[in-house]
Design a protein that fits this description.
The chain is α/β, with parallel strands linked by helices. It has helices at about 30-45, 50-60, 70-85, 85-90, 100-105, 115-125, 125-145, 155-160, 175-185, 205-210, 225-235, 250-265, 270-285, and strands at about 15-20, 165-170, 195, 220-225, 240. The N and C termini lie far apart (about 45 Å).
């Protein structure tokens, strides 16, 4: 089946990809702390070290350079950091290594439930079934809990200003169903030509399929709040505008009032972008505070 991103037709000279969780919507904190983390503790047997599991999970998913990573690599990274903590070793808690999940992630680029289910049907691996149970439970928690969370200030205004000059696509690793629900709930879905979730590939693949070869590279911009978004942009030869964690309102206002006009005037690339990226780089640490 053809990927719908490949069939998108250009209607403007400019293209803007926008991440959703933590970038367009102030939803990262509630999803990670109230939905994903409790299920992480439950499904991987971390109740005896829940304090350290929460601290580790939020560092990986919110407060470090891995912020915004796909849910499956997030599990592995969190378990690896947790296993290495002295507090966990002292309590004698066995932290899973999930070798089957690691192997699957090396072979698969579309890290989504549907692809994981295909692997389970092929292998009947109990470890992968455990991961799927976690992922399904996290999705159910998001659907149950995350409601009424609006876009950040200046997101709607920016979309309205963008639409006359740029084709807009949502570029995310959130399941598409959740993205569509959130964008429709707040009546901003019509601004996007396509809402692309994890089922359509990685963020780099989204940009490559939707934009590369259709627009001049200096007319392709990715807006994101995580280093993975920057990596996706660079992987597609695109420009990047950072929504800086903790300074989201300021970042969107600057995009609306200043950066967008530079992008359209072809004066964004160069020292202006580099100054923004320096701010972004300084906002997220690589080393956990407990090390």
């Amino acid at each position: 089946m053809a990927n719908p991103l490949e069939n998108l037709e250009r209607s403007h000279d400019f293209f803007v990809g926008i991440d959703s969780d933590g970038c367009a919507f102030d939803s990262m904190e509630i999803k990670q702390k109230e939905c994903f983390c409790p299920q992480f503790i439950k499904h991987f047997g971390l109740q005896a070290v829940s304090k350290y599991a929460r601290e580790t999970w939020t560092f990986v998913n919110l407060y470090s350079k891995s912020r915004g990573v796909n849910r499956f690599p997030a599990i592995v990274e969190s378990l690896d950091l947790l296993r290495d903590r002295e507090e966990v070793k002292m309590r004698g808690v066995e932290v899973p290594t999930l070798e089957a999940l690691r192997g699957w992630m090396k072979r698969e680029t579309r890290l989504a439930n549907a692809k994981l289910q295909e692997e389970i049907e092929r292998t009947n691996d109990p470890e992968l079934k455990r991961v799927m149970a976690y992922s399904n439970a996290a999705n159910a928690a998001v659907q149950d809990i995350v409601k009424g969370v609006p876009p950040f200030p200046y997101v709607r205004e920016s979309l309205e200003k963008l639409r006359s000059n740029a084709d807009i696509v949502v570029v995310s690793q959130t399941p598409t169903e959740a993205l569509v629900r959130e964008w429709e709930e707040h009546a901003i879905a019509p601004y996007a030509l396509q809402i692309a979730g994890q089922e359509l590939g990685s963020k780099t693949e989204h940009l490559q399929m939707a934009a590369v070869g259709k627009y001049d590279s200096e007319k392709i911009l990715m807006i994101g709040d995580a280093p993975g978004d920057l990596k996706a942009a660079r992987g597609a030869g695109a420009l990047f505008y950072p929504i800086i964690p903790g300074r989201e309102e300021e970042s969107w206002r600057r995009f609306h009032d200043e950066a967008m006009d530079r992008f359209f005037a072809l004066t964004y690339k160069g020292s202006y972008e580099q100054d923004l990226l320096a701010e972004f780089e300084a906002s997220l640490p690589a080393t956990p505070p407990w090390k």
